[in-house]
Records
---
Amino acid sequence: MQTAPDRAAGRPHRTGRPRLKTVLPAGAFAALAVIGGAAYFMDRADGRSDRAAVDAYVRDLNNGDVTRLNTDIYPGNPGAAQTIINEAHRPWSITSISVVHEFGPDYGVAELWGTAAGTSLHVRLPLLRHDGTWYVAQTSPQPTTGDPSAATAQP
């Protein structure tokens, strides 16, 4: 409760309750942040984000599930899933995943670190969003060690 000396000193009245003017804008901002964050991570019609597409790819690869892996990779590569399963060193045990969108909102690259069949693994998977659905746009597994790509090889 405000006393006479407080009024005389020009101090504001304080009752211990938050003021309505400051509570409502903060609450509205928090609600918008939650809604916006959910919309960012739910790019697929079924609510699966680009990261979830990578997680599904790794899970289905490790399980050797050709049918499910075909739904994880970009459509139009009917034999790719079987080739990937046949050539990949499995199982993949992933310790870290990073997804970066450098070429617009519909293209990305996922970098995965971990182990595959007991050896160190570092893989870059291209990602593509088509009709609101994220896919791994890869037709065969990448090497986990050794061979430099054409872009980095010395002549």
---
Amino acid sequence: MGLAVLAACAKPTPATRFQYHGLAFVAPAGWALDTTDLRTTDGVFTLICEKSGFNESGIVTLTCIEQPLSVAEGLEIFRQSMAENIIYKNADLQFQPARDTTLNGQPAQALAFRLSLLGVPHAGTLTCAASGGRLVSVMSQTADEDRPKNLPGFRSIEQSLTW
């Protein structure tokens, strides 16, 4: 009971501008950045932005590869990585065919995917774009039931993203 009261009284996370190695975006209010594992290893860095609060399912994983890869190569690398991840292996991960799109005005390709985590249906999108000798991947994922409240956060992150 005391924990529930504390969670209800917690101040919402303010919008936060993030910048690292030329990658920048705004994490909207109510979303928290996790830079715990942020490091550049062999020209690759990853960070996570999650919807704050108890029982929230929105997550965005941003990865930057500082190598000149094609968008198709990058999409396949990330698709394979997800397919080999132990969590996704046990979650009936299913990908849709790649489609052309844009990521904040840059030509991109995206894969929609579906999975079931602990019996809860989830959907997501894996989007890759390349520019200036870098490949950027944005993976957004949400429980189906939370999709309406998470989509504005996903859009905000993607629309503010620069690299």
